[in-house]
């Protein structure tokens, strides 16, 4: 088959995969500090996108809207932490799984009623016209997604390494008990991680909305893929999600082309089960030695 | 005692609070989730009509005027819930009729319960062929299920016809992986055969609900030389196809089912959607005073700038008027009598889509069109132009305007006529 | 007796009531709901095996429902067979594929397990959708109920069939889950490592549990197919899975009643909420209950403020929202979410967990009486002690990357001895234990038990060879009682084949196991706490329980990994007593310990490790004065010829 077609599909798929990676990164942030993830992360993406759309409709320019959207996402992240996660963590239970799902369900229903059930376009100043790069068509919109994803991940990683607060974050991730003994509040750090994760979800929503449109169900397909990427890469893999996300996206695109579009997801799913069977902690995750 | 308890706790809904002084009509459909834009549009169209009727004092039933009471049920586009709702409705006892359902699967799972009890239902706007053909296949003699939507058979015929008229020879068939898409694909392939195999299908491509990157499917179609894309799917994914075509520089028109007129396609495809063609029963253009009143009424009542799915809304609206006419003619709220009246409506019903003149006749399992209101004549090709659906062919506008004012030709069917 | 009467009585009454409903009510809607309730009851009992007992988030259950439904549908439509073969085939498909899926998912836990099962579910939906020639794809599969013995199955008959199957499943599962199988499932959840180390075999139990749950999913799927008579692949997706999961947790995990209550909630609640009046009644009642429970919890300080207040706020929101919202049907999902939120936060043990405590108090349900303890002579007959080499380590090595944790260790444990193994922190003691007991395979060298090599790298097989161990970091089955902890590990008691267990014909061996376990608990002084959950025991008692549990393996060699770590002095004294008593039965012991008092008092021989190598070996008193030992502990050679005792470092 024509190499430029393969290239086109690989690139298109991989760019979509970057969005999976960004949402997956949001999973990582909370998993690092609290060993919990927000199963309603997709709804967080969705409500943040709707909120950003409302800001835009109120007349806010695109670049001014972004911080507003991120702030809203962070706040929603904190709501999830307070209402769904903290109690379960205090009780060392797994209630957070259900509670985050339930809160997601509530967000979904609320969004349907507040913003409507219809999918709506998300205006952006970035042009959707394609540009040609060595025989491959890419839209500026897709490029903006790539840039945005890498920028926020880079910024958060820098924050973790260079600031005091970030170091506290790393400390709690490494050893919660030891960090607490050193006077770091684990609860606050978990809050921070949920806030960041919410902001990341909001950015994912803002970046992807011009492509996918904004609607209550916009993230339901994304979120399962993002979860796969997070786990296959390893829930502590850092930038590993980027590689796995791009790989999965490209694989889906190619599978769709060669196997028929109905089987698009099948190779990814089979690989995923195999990858987990071989490396339970993820491809880029830290292997653990069973200790007793 | 126990029986009472059961009724009391489980079936409060079934018993209702007041009996006898209202006409109970159930509106069902997906009011949440992915199909909600269609479900809520149809429901709100129906509600608008009911509000108008009630404001005018209700329907003359026998000697007195009765108002319509709405029973609303969200089936979430889930077959399982659809079946339970149908059971609930069929157990109510004093229900006059049901209007609704968007998803063909929900019809397949639920309607048998209504049919068993002889509850009159007007399916609106589910268009999948199977929801009516299942009764023909089962050889049912007496059917209480009607449809008020341009079924896929008509639509597919028009889509294929349009492609042939535009002198295309190679087309790609693209569809979503749901019941709706797959059955649309079958109808289109069937029509291509029926219309003399003038089109070669170079690719059959599928996508899932929620897919946003259609590059692979489109590249295949493009590399195999498709000149047009015949498409069957729902809103946002259709827009993704349209945008994907622009991205890879594929210049072929999209021709497909009526869902291409939904705002979630038009808005999201933007200028990439221009030139897209789809069969329409109603176009949100105030061509008649009735249409103007309906559109303005809808915008005002439900506080929207544009109807999410004008087709579904208009059909929901007209379906209520058909039901109301049948109730009036039957002079009863008894669902069986209403069914009989629907099969033999004496007076034309003025709706927003058309003036309906004897739309249904006595059910004949050999001919499903006996319970289908729409014929080819009420359907036109719509085209997307700058964010609006306009008439694809100007001659249609005139034709529709005329048919809306004068009545549709009465449906005349052998035996039914004599009845 | 009263207990049996109450518990079985409740079951009987409920089933009898449910069975008579079609005679009293001719409402198809009520019947439809109750039929679905029975089907979901079976489905959730199956899901509870993996979610409740195995403690894993299983997202594949909905796929087995779908696969079962399609199997039954295809058997009827394509093969033209009747209902019984269709249901059997549906169940078989569930069992088979469930077992198969368990294989790659075996090593996974937590999010990884969830993802693997989720992927399986997505794959099976894709397959059902794509194999159009077989399944009809997205257009669905229509089928009709085949007649049974020439009779068409009317809705009431079909309802009775579903109820009867639920009752059968209920009975069989009750028997199974109350047996060693159920305990093994729970043990697996709490500590897979200890489960293996107690010779129970995580592998086959995990596969069995998963296959069993999936088989029930398949059976429920078969009934689902005949209930709706129309199938579509999209019905069996993530959305439904989440609802099922909520059902299990809401009802209460690890409980048949819980599964049933959960099924009622998820089947009835969404359908009833459509009615505005019922919604207002529910929200009003819910608010009142939340308020009462919240206030009570706050006053008595039994609940955290958040736990007491959040349900009140959520239910309050419902009540207030009820007045403002025009159309409650539009908000149905949010209403459902708020109700679920209140229950999950307010009643973390689920509705049934809460009710069980409440009802047990109300009716004063006594605990089943325990049998008289068995005679110790019967369980642990004294063994002949011949002083021959029991366990021999030959040049044993275990490296982790560049770290040589054990580097060429040779030592011999004589039959009937208490052999001490000491050394400073990081000297490789724990690694030695982990290699012997099979947690790690050795990098080089051999481990021989009575001259034959021990299986390497398998806790399970080593345990079956007659070596039992305790754990330095406790690995008890926290959710099980002390008695059950010991019963899980009991060797040579459970002989009944699975069918007998399912039919409840293995009660006698269950009594035997209880008696034996009680005897062993008596040996460590925990007889009175037999019915306390392990995680509620005091720290010392937990340590002793580990010893009792290891004894239940009736081992030739007992490895005690720092049993005195963290114990207070009186407990240490008791521990020494316990070990002496065990030793008297002729069991050889390898004792890893920091407390020199314990080592001096108990051990015949002591081996001292440092840097993964033996630096000294001999009787405790000799070893204590060995210069190398003193150096290893104090970090310098002895200055005088009367060095003090090496300072024991707390673990």
Largest sheet of chain A: 2 strands, antiparallel
What fraction of residues of chain A sit in β-strands?
Answer: under 5%
Q: How many domains in all of chain B?
A: 2
Spell out the helices and strands of chain A N to C. HHHHEEHHHHHHH
- Percent in helix of chain A: over 70%
Overall pLDDT metric of chain B: 86
**Spatial extent as radius of gyration of chain A:** 19 Å
Question: Which CATH class of the largest domain in chain B is shown?
Answer: Alpha Beta
From the helix content, strand content and strand pairing of chain B, which structural class follows?
alpha/beta
> How are the strands ordered across the major sheet of chain B?
2-3-1-4-5-6
DSSP, total strands of chain A: 2
Radius of gyration from the alpha-carbon trace of chain B, in angstroms: 21 Å
Biggest sheet: strand arrangement of chain A? 1-2
Could you characterize what this model shows?
The complex is a heterotrimer of chains A (292), B (419) and C (651). Chain A is mainly α and 292 residues long. Chain A is built from 11 helices and 2 strands. Chain B folds into 2 domains: 2-150 and 283-376, Rossmann fold (3-Layer(aba) Sandwich), CATH 3.40.50.2300; 153-280, Rossmann fold. In chain B, the strands form 4 sheets. Chain B has a 6-stranded mixed beta sheet with strand order 2-3-1-4-5-6, with helices on both faces. Chain B has a 4-stranded parallel beta sheet with strand order 8-7-9-10, sandwiched between helices. Chain C is elongated and about 90 Å long. The two termini of chain C are 48 Å apart. Classes of the chains: A mainly alpha (292), B alpha/beta (419), C alpha/beta (651). Chains in contact: A-B, A-C, B-C. At the A-C interface, helix 3, helix 4, helix 9 and helix 11 of A face helix 5, helix 11, helix 14 and helix 15 of C.
Element layout with pairings:
The complex is a heterotrimer of chains A (292), B (419) and C (651).
Chain A: H1 3-34, H2 41-57, H3 62-90, H4 95-115, E1 130-133, E2 136-139, H5 140-162, H6 164-174, H7 176-181, H8 186-212, H9 220-233, H10 240-259, H11 266-278
Antiparallel strand pairs in A: 1-2
Helix pairs in contact in A: 1-5, 1-6, 1-8, 1-9, 1-10, 2-3, 2-4, 2-8, 3-4, 3-8, 5-6, 5-8, 6-8, 9-10
Chain B: H1 2-10, H2 12-15, E1 22-29, H3 36-55, E2 59-61, E3 64-74, H4 79-90, E4 95-100, H5 104-117, E5 121-123, H6 130-138, E6 145-147, H7 152-165, E7 170-176, H8 179-194, E8 200-207, H9 215-223, E9 228-232, H10 235-247, E10 254-256, H11 263-269, E11 277-280, H12 289-302, H13 310-330, H14 335-342, E12 349-350, E13 355-356, E14 380-385, E15 388-391, H15 394-405, H16 414-418
Parallel strand pairs in B: 1-3, 1-4, 4-5, 5-6, 7-8, 7-9, 9-10
Antiparallel strand pairs in B: 2-3, 11-14, 12-13, 14-15
Chain C: H1 2-24, H2 28-53, H3 61-77, H4 83-105, H5 110-130, H6 132-135, E1 141-142, H7 155-177, H8 180-190, H9 192-197, H10 202-228, E2 230-231, H11 238-251, H12 256-272, H13 276-300, H14 305-324, H15 332-346, H16 350-363, H17 376-379, E3 389-400, E4 403-414, E5 418-422, H18 429-436, E6 444-449, E7 452-453, H19 459-464, E8 467-469, H20 482-489, H21 498-502, H22 507-523, H23 539-551, E9 557-561, H24 569-584, E10 588-592, H25 596-602, E11 605-610, E12 613-618, H26 620-625, H27 627-634
Parallel strand pairs in C: 5-10, 5-11, 8-9, 9-10
Antiparallel strand pairs in C: 1-2, 3-4, 3-6, 6-7, 11-12
Helix pairs in contact in C: 1-7, 2-7, 2-10, 2-11, 2-12, 3-4, 3-5, 3-10, 4-10, 8-10, 8-20, 11-12, 11-16, 12-16, 13-14, 14-15, 20-22, 20-23, 22-23
């Amino acid at each position: 088959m024509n190499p430029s077609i393969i290239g086109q599909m690989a690139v298109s798929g991989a760019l979509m995969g970057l969005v999976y990676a960004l949402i997956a990164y949001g999973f990582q942030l909370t998993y690092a500090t609290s060993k919990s993830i927000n199963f309603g992360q997709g709804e967080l993406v969705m409500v943040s996108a709707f909120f950003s759309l409302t800001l835009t409709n109120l007349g806010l320019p695109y670049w001014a809207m972004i911080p507003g959207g991120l702030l809203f996402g962070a706040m929603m992240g904190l709501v999830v932490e307070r209402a769904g996660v903290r109690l379960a963590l205090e009780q060392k239970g797994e209630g957070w799984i259900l509670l985050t799902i339930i809160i997601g369900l509530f967000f979904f229903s609320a969004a349907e009623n507040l913003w409507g059930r219809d999918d709506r376009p998300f205006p952006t100043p970035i042009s959707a016209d394609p540009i040609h790069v060595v025989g491959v068509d890419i839209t500026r919109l897709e490029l903006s997604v790539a840039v945005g994803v890498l920028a926020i991940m880079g910024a958060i990683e820098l924050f973790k390494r260079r600031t005091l607060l970030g170091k506290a974050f790393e400390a709690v991730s490494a050893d919660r008990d030891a960090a607490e003994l050193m006077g770091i509040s684990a609860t606050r750090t978990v809050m921070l991680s949920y806030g960041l994760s919410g902001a990341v979800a909001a950015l994912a929503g803002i970046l992807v909305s011009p492509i996918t449109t904004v609607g209550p169900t916009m993230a339901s397909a994304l979120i399962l893929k993002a979860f796969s990427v997070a786990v296959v890469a390893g829930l502590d893999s850092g930038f590993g999600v980027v590689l796995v996300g791009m790989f999965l996206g490209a694989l889906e695109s190619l599978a769709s082309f060669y196997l028929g579009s109905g089987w698009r997801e099948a190779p990814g799913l089979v690989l995923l089960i195999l990858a987990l069977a071989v490396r339970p902690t993820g491809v880029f995750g830290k292997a653990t030695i069973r200790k007793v | 005692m126990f029986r009472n308890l059961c009724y009391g706790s489980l079936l409060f809904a079934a018993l209702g609070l007041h009996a006898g002084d209202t006409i109970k009509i159930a509106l069902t459909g997906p009011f949440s989730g992915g199909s909600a834009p269609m479900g809520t549009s149809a429901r709100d169209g129906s509600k608008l009509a009911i509000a108008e009727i009630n404001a005018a004092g209700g329907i003359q039933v026998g000697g007195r005027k009765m108002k319509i009471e709405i029973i609303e049920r969200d089936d979430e586009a889930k077959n399982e819930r659809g079946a339970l709702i149908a059971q609930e409705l069929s157990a109510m006892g004093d229900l006059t009729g049901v209007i609704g359902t968007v998803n063909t699967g929900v019809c397949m799972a639920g309607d048998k319960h209504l049919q068993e009890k002889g509850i009159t239902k007007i399916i609106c706007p589910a268009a999948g062929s199977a929801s009516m053909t299942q009764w023909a296949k089962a050889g049912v003699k007496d059917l209480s299920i009607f449809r008020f939507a341009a079924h896929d058979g008509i639509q597919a015929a028009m889509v294929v016809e349009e492609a042939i008229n535009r002198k295309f020879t190679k087309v790609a068939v693209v569809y979503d992986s749901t019941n709706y898409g797959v059955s649309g694909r079958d109808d289109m392939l069937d029509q291509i055969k029926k219309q003399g195999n003038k089109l070669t299908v170079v690719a059959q491509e599928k996508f899932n609900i929620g897919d946003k990157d259609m590059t692979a499917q489109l590249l295949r179609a493009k590399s195999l030389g498709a000149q047009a894309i015949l498409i069957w799917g729902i809103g946002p994914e259709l827009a993704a196809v349209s945008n994907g075509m622009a991205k890879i520089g594929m210049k072929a028109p999209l021709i497909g089912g009526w869902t291409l007129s939904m705002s979630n396609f038009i808005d999201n495809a933007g200028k990439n959607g221009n030139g897209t063609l789809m069969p329409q029963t109603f176009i949100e253009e105030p061509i008649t005073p009735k249409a103007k009143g309906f559109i303005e009424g809808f915008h005002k009542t439900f506080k929207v700038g544009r109807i999410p799915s004008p087709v579904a809304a208009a059909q929901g609206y007209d379906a209520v008027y058909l039901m109301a006419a049948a109730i009036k003619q039957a002079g009863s709220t008894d669902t069986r009598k209403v069914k009989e009246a629907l099969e033999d409506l004496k007076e034309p019903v003025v709706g927003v889509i058309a003036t309906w003149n004897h739309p249904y006749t006595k059910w004949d399992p050999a001919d499903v069109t006996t319970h289908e209101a729409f014929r080819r004549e009420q359907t036109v090709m719509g085209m997307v132009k700058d964010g609006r659906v306009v008439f694809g062919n100007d001659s249609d506008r005139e034709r529709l305007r005329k048919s809306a004012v004068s009545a549709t030709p009465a449906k005349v069917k052998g035996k039914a006529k004599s009845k | 007796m009263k207990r049996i009467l109450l518990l079985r009585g409740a079951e009987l009454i409920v089933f009898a009531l449910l069975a008579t409903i079609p005679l009293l009510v001719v409402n198809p809607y009520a019947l439809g709901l109750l039929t679905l309730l029975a089907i979901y009851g079976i489905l959730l009992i199956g899901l509870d095996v993996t979610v409740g007992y195995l403690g894993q988030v299983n997202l594949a259950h909905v796929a087995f429902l779908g696969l079962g439904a399609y199997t039954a549908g295809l058997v009827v439509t394509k093969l033209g067979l009747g209902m019984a073969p269709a249901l059997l085939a549906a169940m078989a498909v569930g069992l088979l594929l469930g077992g198969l899926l368990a294989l790659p998912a075996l090593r996974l836990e937590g999010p990884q397990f969830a993802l693997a099962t989720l992927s399986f579910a997505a794959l099976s939906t894709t397959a059902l959708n794509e194999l159009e020639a077989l399944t009809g794809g997205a257009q669905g599969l229509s089928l009709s109920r085949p007649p049974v013995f020439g009779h068409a199955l009317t809705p009431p008959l079909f309802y009775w069939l579903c109820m009867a199957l639920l009752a059968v499943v209920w009975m069989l599962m009750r028997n199974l889950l109350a047996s060693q199988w159920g305990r093994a499932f729970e043990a697996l959840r709490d500590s897979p490592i200890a489960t293996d180390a107690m010779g129970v075999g995580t592998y086959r139990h995990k596969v069995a549990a998963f296959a069993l749950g999936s088989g029930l999913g398949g059976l429920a799927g078969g009934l689902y197919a005949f209930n709706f008579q129309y199938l579509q692949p999209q019905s069996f997706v993530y959305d439904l899975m989440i609802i099922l999961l909520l059902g299990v947790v809401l009802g209460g995990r690890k409980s048949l009643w819980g599964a049933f209550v959960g099924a009622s909630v998820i089947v009835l609640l969404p359908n009833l909420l459509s009615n505005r009046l019922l919604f207002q009644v529910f929200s009003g009642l819910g608010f009142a209950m939340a308020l009462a429970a919240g206030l009570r919890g706050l006053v008595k300080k039994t609940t955290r403020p958040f736990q007491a207040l959040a349900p009140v706020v959520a239910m309050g929101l419902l009540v207030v929202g009820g007045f403002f919202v025009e159309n409650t049907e539009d908000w149905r999902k949010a209403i459902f979410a708020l109700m679920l939120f209140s229950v999950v936060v307010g009643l973390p043990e689920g509705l049934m967990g809460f009710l069980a405590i409440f009802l047990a108090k109300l009716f004063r349900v006594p605990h089943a009486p325990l049998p008289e303890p068995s005679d110790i002579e019967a369980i642990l007959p004294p063994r002949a002690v011949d002083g021959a080499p029991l366990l021999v380590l030959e040049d044993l090595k275990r490296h982790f990357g560049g770290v040589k944790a054990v580097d060429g260790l040779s030592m011999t444990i004589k039959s009937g001895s208490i052999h001490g193994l000491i050394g400073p922190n990081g000297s490789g003691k724990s690694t030695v234990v982990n290699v012997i007991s099979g947690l790690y395979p050795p990098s080089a060298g051999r481990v021989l038990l009575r001259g034959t090599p021990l299986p390497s790298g398998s806790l399970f097989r080593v345990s079956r060879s007659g070596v039992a161990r305790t754990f330095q970091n406790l690995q008890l089955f926290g959710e099980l009682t002390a008695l059950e902890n010991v019963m899980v590990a009991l060797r040579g008691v459970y002989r009944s084949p699975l069918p007998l267990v399912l039919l409840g014909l293995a009660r006698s061996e269950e009594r035997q196991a209880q008696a034996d376990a009680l005897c062993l608990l008596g040996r460590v002084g925990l007889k009175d706490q037999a019915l306390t959950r392990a995680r509620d025991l005091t720290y010392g008692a937990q340590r002793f329980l580990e010893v009792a549990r290891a004894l239940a393996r009736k081992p030739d060699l007992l490895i005690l990994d720092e049993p005195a770590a963290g114990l207070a002095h009186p407990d240490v004294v008791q521990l020494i007593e316990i070990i002496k008593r065990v030793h008297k039965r002729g069991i050889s012991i390898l004792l890893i310990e920091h407390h020199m008092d314990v080592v001096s008092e108990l051990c015949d021989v002591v081996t001292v490790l440092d840097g993964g190598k033996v630096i000294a070996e001999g009787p405790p008193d000799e070893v204590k004065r060995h210069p190398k030992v003193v150096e290893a502990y104090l970090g310098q050679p002895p200055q005088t010829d009367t060095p003090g005792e090496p300072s024991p470092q707390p673990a």
